[in-house]
Amino acid sequence: MTLSLIQKRRSIRKFLKTPVEPEKIAVLIEAALRAPSSRGLKPWEFVVIDKAGILEKLANSKPYGSAFLKNAVLGIVICADPKRCDVWIEDSSIAATYIQLTAQSLGLGSCWVQIRERMCDSTRTAEESVRDVLEIPEHLRVDSLIAIGYPAEDLPAHSQDELQYEKVYYNRYGEKAKNAK
Ligand SMILES: Cc1cc2nc3c(=O)[nH]c(=O)nc-3n(C[C@H](O)[C@H](O)[C@H](O)COP(=O)(O)O)c2cc1C
After folding, report:
1. Which residue from 112, 117, 127, 143 has its CB within 8 A of the most atoms of ligand 1, so it is best to mutate?
2. Among 5, 80, 108, 111, which is disulfide-ready with 11 (CB 3.0 to 4.6 Å)?
3. Over 70: is that where the pLDDT of 181 sits?
């Protein structure tokens, strides 16, 4: 089940206007909260956005790679407290991945929008922009934002031929398996 989801997964940036049912939003939140975290410290917090006006503002978080948010019906911002855990980026990324795969299992499409380490414009970081829109307190860092909705595009799965098996080694770096492709 999980492998077939992974095999079909693509980043979806075009969405129908159909709202995501509250039961499905609840499942997405449950999945995020069940994500593994280093030492079980759970440094993350999530902001669920289902208001079109706010998604539109978040679409302007950076010059590239966020505009499609204005067509999403749902967004989940992943932020975390670095004081709570030194590996908050890993923890946040895993939670984001859980959200994305769960979205797919529910028939939803999603796409990651990178916020951390990105600029909104020449004077402001994307993090500052998101923080302002959502009133996120200063002690939290904003990692990413997952745009979610029913897909309005059908992208082909990546084929087996695209998979970079040449980057996989066995027992020692550089060692290929006898039957390696
Ligand atoms: C850490 C990370 C950051 C990403 N940031 C963005 C982004 O800001 N905007 C965007 O449109 N896609 C973003 N993506 C999605 C990638 O562009 C996408 O996964 C990649 O092009 C491969 O396409 P696929 O997911 O359909 O296989 C990001 C993905 C990851 C894992």
Report:
1. 112
2. 111
3. no
CB burial of residue 26 (10 Å; 0-12, 13-18, 19+): exposed
First to last CA, the chain: 26
Which domain, by its residues, includes 139?
A: 2-155
Q: Could you write out the DSSP letters of every residue in 77-133?
A: EEEE-TTT-TTHHHHHHHHHHHHHHHHHHTT-EEEEEE-TT-BSSSSSBHHHHHHHH
- pLDDT-above-90 percentage for the chain: 96
In this structure, are strands 141-149 and 44-49 parallel, antiparallel, or unpaired? unpaired
Say what the pLDDT of residue 122 is. 97
- pLDDT for the residue numbered 1: 75
Q: Give the tens place of pLDDT for each residue, 94-106.
A: 999 999 999 999 9
Q: Which residue's CA lies nearest to atom 11 of ligand 1?
A: 65
Q: Residues enclosing ligand 1, CB less than 6 A?
A: 10-11, 13, 65, 111-114, 158
Q: 112 CA to middle of ligand 1, Å?
A: 6
The tally of domains found in the chain comes to 1
